[in-house]
Each structure stands twice: as structure tokens, then as C-alpha cells.
């Protein structure tokens, strides 16, 4: 396995960079028939700076995916505001791209066509588009699979395509909804490595939803620990472990243990 | 793309004709042994002679001789007109009904009630409305083909995962382009099923539509032969409709695969 690339330290990044995403007092209630409303999210506030890697960690059912849907613009919050670069974020668009947990590729398009999908209508020549697609194909290691259909490739490869098709749009912020949860352990580790490598090369801003403590500890600059329903931010954990992080390190192990203890205490 | 076009090997190709072959052999056996007398089931060689006269004979040489191409043209025109009308109405209404609750509420009761009415009960009414001739046949074919096309388009559109549309939205696809670039391709397998069912049923209702009043067409041929007790002609008509129906199905399949990328993933 290739060694993980050195990445600039979290402190350096968060101190100097401008705020990209500003979530202010966001709540979400769902109206049900009869039994009253269900509050899924309550007064969520946090900011994300350019280049930061944020993990939202919580048990299933704590509203973390709902929050991601609100950030993406797929549903409006019941109260509160989401700002992107200072302006209220409205409809979904290529400035906030999502990598979904399940397979959301277009089954009738090849790998290459899936990656090129979002470029349609952009002011680029055909040749420029082709070059971009080739670049991202090689970034996610799928050059040899360019002409395959999604049904012909593995789950891990599908998530690589999902990643490439949004990275090519150069979103302000990348939203990831448990993207590796459905993969086997080996593939998940490969994908985590790939994501960290791409992040260091392309310096994206990432909000990553997960229920996996080890994943959050490996990836994040900051972890937002969610309380049980209704979802609230219970604690913000800043991870100072140097990168590249190793799962064998004592520091990493201690961190995982302490976060796990916090989740159990919820 | 060439890589994905499956080349059927010879043994598999033969498999397609196994069941028709068995039927033919059984037919030959019961005719040769006299198990089925000719007035119930004519001998294959008589049917073959009738067929060759019907297909290739000179008009006037014998009854029904040389009429095939006129009948074929008349029937195909009626089927294509009726099927075309069913497609034009069925796919847009079905897709709208599958995606918009309002349209679904508006249409579902009416369509599901009408669907229960057997086609033959429309025949007298259609004859009163449209008179005797092509319009009645086209109306019946369109009516019958509409339901499978509509229902499958509706089911296909409804089952499209919302995640696909969200994925489109985040990649900057607005509603109209999303309909053509995501919704329809994702619903394509169901839409194709509906079109194939509709095409099959079109031929079935063609015969019904040609029962009365028209002088040409394969349905008219069969009805005419029934009056005259020419059972060999009836058998010829049945086999020809089966063959043409299969040809139309294959043609439809290839036309769709040629026109839509999303149709290519269906074997």
C-alpha cells in the first residue's frame, strides 16, 4: 500500500482560511399525522472553513443524513439558515455536491459518461471536457474501466465514479453521506486512502457523515458528535493527530476509545 | 460499445425455434396419422400450398391468391397508426401520472375503470362513432395498446429512485432536462416492456377491428375464410400474424436500442 501523503496541519488550515459554510440555528421538524411533530434536528450551528475536513458522527437515526440533505438543498430547514460563502444557499447545485451512500450512478451511461454528465452545458470545448474526464478517471484509478457500465463494476469502483463525477465540477463543498458504509473493510480502507489523497491534491472542503468512530478519527480535522434524537451537536472534537494517521498508533487508538466512550454515554 | 453487443452462438439461436419446431412436428404427426382430420386441422403441406398461393400467386388465379401484400399493407398501416396514437398518449400521460400525484388522482380511477372493459364491447360503439372502415380499427388498436403502455410508463416513472433526481439536481440539471436526461432513461426498461406489450396487443385487436366492414387486412382474411369454411386460410392467417407480430417486436426492440442509449442495457 502506498504511504499516505503529508498534509498541512489542521491548525494551519483552520486559522487562516475563510469560512465556506455557515450553518446557523438550523432545526428540522417533520409533520406527522396525529401524533404531533417529530423534531429531527434542533438548533444546529457550526462553520466550516475552506479546506477543512469535518466529520458528523452519530448513531443511526440522529438526523445526520437529514442535515446533509438540508446542506445539499434537497430539503429546506424548518428554521435557521445555511450560508455558502456568506450567501443563503438555495436550490441544489454544483457548488454543493453529494456522494450518496447508495449507488446513485446513471445505469445507462458508461463510467466515462457518468463522470462527464455534470459538465454538459459548461463553457468548455469538447476537447477540454474530454481532457478533464480523463484526468479525473485517472485520479480515481478507473482509466481502464472508462467504457464499462455501472452494473459491470464493483461497489468500490462505483463509489470512485460517484466521487469523480462530483469532483470534476469543483464544488465549493463536498458532502458525503456515509459513502463507504456499504463497502467491505478492505475496500473501505482503500477508499479512505483515496479520499485523503484527493483531498491533499485538490484541497476540497469536506463534510462527511459517518457512524464509524474509526473512520471519523482517521479522516477528520474536527468531529461534530451528534446527540441521540432530536439531533443536536453534543460536542465538537478537534483532532490534533498528525497526518498521515496510522491505525496502529497509540494516539489514534486512544482517540477512538475516548470517542466511543462519549457515544456510549449519550 | 461493440464489446457489449452479445453475439449469439449458433446453438442458442436454434433454441429460439425449438418450440415452434416441436409444434410443427406434432402437427405433421397428427395430420399424417389421421389423428386430426383435415376439416379440423388441415395438413401442413396443404397449408403450405395455400400460403404460397396467398403470398406469391397471381390475383384471380384462385380464391385469396396474391392478396397477401395488400392485406399486409392495410393491416400494418392500421396497427402502426393505432399503436402510434397509443404511444403519443400513453407515455406522456403515464410518466406524468407516475411523478405527479395530482395527475395520478385525476387519471387513475378513469383509466383503471376503462381498462376493465373488454375490447370487444367497444366494437359496436366504435362502429357507430367511426363508421365501418379504417377509423374503427385504428380506434380499437389505439385503445387496447394504450393501457399497457400507460401503466408501464407510470410504474417505471414512479419507481425512479429520488436519489437519481437529487444527483441530477446537484449536478445542475433543471427539471426539463432532468426529465429527458434522467427520468425517462431511468424508466426506460418499464417503458419498453409497455411498448412491447402494446405492440403485441395491437395485432390482437387488429383482428377484432377487422372483423366487420373492411374487405382487406389479415383480420378480414381470417373472418372471410371462416364464413367460407376455408380452415387452411385461417391457419395461414394465424401463422402470418404470429410471424409479423414477432418481427414487429424485434423491429421495435432494435429501433429503441438504436435511438436510446438507455434501451441498450436491456438484453
How would you explain this protein's 3D organization?
Chain A is 34% helix and 23% strand. Chain A starts with 9 loop residues before the first helix and ends with a helix. Chain A has helices at residues 10-16, 64-72, 111-116, 126-139, 155-167, 185-202, 213-219, 250-265, and strands at 19-30, 38-49, 53-57, 79-84, 87-88, 96-99, 173-177, 206-210, 222-226, 233-238. In chain A, helix 7 (213-219) crosses helix 8 (250-265). By secondary structure, chain A is an alpha/beta fold. Residues 1-12 of chain A have low confidence and may be disordered. Chain A is built from eight helices and ten strands. With 267 residues, chain B is mainly alpha-helical. Chain B has a single domain (68-265), classed as MetI-like fold (Orthogonal Bundle), CATH 1.10.3720. Chain B is 75% helix and 0% strand. Chain B is built from eleven helices and no strands. Chain B has helices at residues 10-15, 18-32, 44-56, 68-99, 101-115, 122-130, 134-158, 162-170, 175-209, 218-228, 231-259. In chain B, helix 7 packs antiparallel against helix 9 (175-209). Chain B is globular, with a radius of gyration of 22 Å. Residues 1-5 of chain B have low confidence and may be disordered. Chains A and B meet through strand 6 of A and helix 8 and helix 9 of B.
User: What is the CATH architecture descriptor of chain B?
Assistant: Orthogonal Bundle
- Unreliable spans of chain A are 1-12
Which structural class do the helices and strands of chain B define? Answer: mainly alpha
Spell the H/E element sequence of chain B.
HHHHHHHHHHH
Helix segment tally of chain B: 11
Amino acid at each position: 500500500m502506498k504511504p499516505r501523503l503529508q498534509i498541512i496541519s489542521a491548525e494551519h488550515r483552520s486559522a487562516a482560511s475563510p469560512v465556506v459554510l455557515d450553518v446557523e440555528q438550523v432545526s428540522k421538524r417533520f409533520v406527522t399525522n396525529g401524533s404531533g411533530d417529530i423534531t429531527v434536528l434542533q438548533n444546529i450551528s457550526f462553520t466550516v472553513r475552506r479546506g477543512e475536513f469535518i466529520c458528523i458522527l452519530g448513531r443511526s437515526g440522529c438526523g445526520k443524513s437529514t442535515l446533509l440533505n438540508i446542506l445539499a438543498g434537497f430539503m429546506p430547514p424548518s428554521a435557521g439558515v445555511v450560508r455558502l460563502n456568506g450567501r443563503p444557499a438555495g436550490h441544489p447545485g454544483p457548488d454543493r455536491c453529494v456522494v450518496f451512500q447508495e449507488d446513485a450512478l446513471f445505469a445507462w451511461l458508461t463510467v466515462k459518461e457518468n463522470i462527464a454528465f455534470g459538465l454538459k452545458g459548461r463553457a468548455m470545448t469538447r476537447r477540454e471536457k474530454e481532457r478533464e474526464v480523463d484526468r479525473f478517471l485517472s485520479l480515481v484509478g478507473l482509466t481502464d474501466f472508462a467504457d464499462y457500465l455501472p452494473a459491470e463494476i464493483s461497489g468500490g469502483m462505483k463509489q470512485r465514479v460517484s466521487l469523480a463525477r462530483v469532483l470534476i465540477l469543483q464544488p465549493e463543498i463536498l458532502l458525503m453521506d456515509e459513502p463507504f458504509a456499504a463497502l467491505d473493510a478492505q475496500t473501505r480502507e482503500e477508499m479512505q486512502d483515496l479520499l485523503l489523497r484527493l483531498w491533499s491534491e485538490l484541497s476540497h472542503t469536506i463534510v462527511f457523515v459517518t457512524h464509524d468512530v474509526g473512520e471519523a478519527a482517521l479522516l477528520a480535522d474536527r468531529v461534530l458528535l451528534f446527540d441521540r434524537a432530536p439531533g443536536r451537536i453534543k460536542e465538537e472534537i478537534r483532532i490534533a493527530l498528525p497526518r498521515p494517521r496510522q491505525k496502529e498508533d497509540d494516539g489514534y487508538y486512544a482517540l477512538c476509545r475516548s470517542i466511543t466512550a462519549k457515544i456510549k454515554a449519550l | 460499445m461493440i464489446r457489449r453487443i452479445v453475439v449469439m452462438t449458433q446453438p442458442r439461436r436454434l433454441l429460439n425455434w425449438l418450440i415452434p419446431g416441436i409444434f410443427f412436428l406434432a402437427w405433421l404427426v397428427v395430420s399424417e396419422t389421421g389423428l386430426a382430420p383435415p376439416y379440423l386441422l388441415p395438413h401442413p403441406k396443404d397449408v403450405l400450398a395455400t400460403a404460397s398461393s396467398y403470398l406469391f400467386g397471381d390475383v384471380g388465379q384462385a380464391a385469396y391468391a396474391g392478396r397477401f401484400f395488400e392485406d399486409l399493407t392495410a393491416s400494418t398501416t392500421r396497427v402502426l397508426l393505432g399503436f402510434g396514437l397509443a404511444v403519443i398518449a400513453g407515455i406522456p400521460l403515464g410518466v406524468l401520472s407516475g411523478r405527479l400525484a395530482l395527475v395520478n388522482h385525476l387519471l387513475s380511477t378513469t383509466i383503471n375503470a376503462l381498462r376493465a372493459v373488454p375490447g370487444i364491447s367497444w366494437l359496436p360503439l366504435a362502429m357507430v362513432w367511426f363508421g365501418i372502415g379504417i377509423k374503427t380499427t385504428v380506434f380499437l388498436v389505439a385503445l387496447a395498446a394504450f393501457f399497457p403502455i400507460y401503466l408501464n410508463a407510470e410504474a417505471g416513472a414512479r419507481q425512479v429512485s429520488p436519489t437519481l433526481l437529487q444527483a441530477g439536481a446537484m449536478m445542475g440539471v433543471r427539471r426539463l432536462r432532468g426529465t429527458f436526461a434522467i427520468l425517462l432513461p431511468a424508466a426506460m426498461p418499464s417503458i419498453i416492456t409497455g411498448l412491447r406489450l402494446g405492440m403485441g396487443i395491437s395485432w390482437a385487436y387488429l383482428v377484432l377491428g377487422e372483423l366487420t366492414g373492411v374487405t382487406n387486412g389479415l383480420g378480414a382474411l381470417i373472418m372471410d375464410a371462416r364464413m367460407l369454411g376455408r380452415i387452411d386460410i385461417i391457419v395461414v392467417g394465424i401463422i402470418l400474424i404470429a410471424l409479423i407480430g414477432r418481427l414487429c417486436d424485434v423491429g421495435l426492440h432494435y429501433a429503441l436500442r438504436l435511438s436510446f442509449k438507455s434501451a441498450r442495457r436491456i438484453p
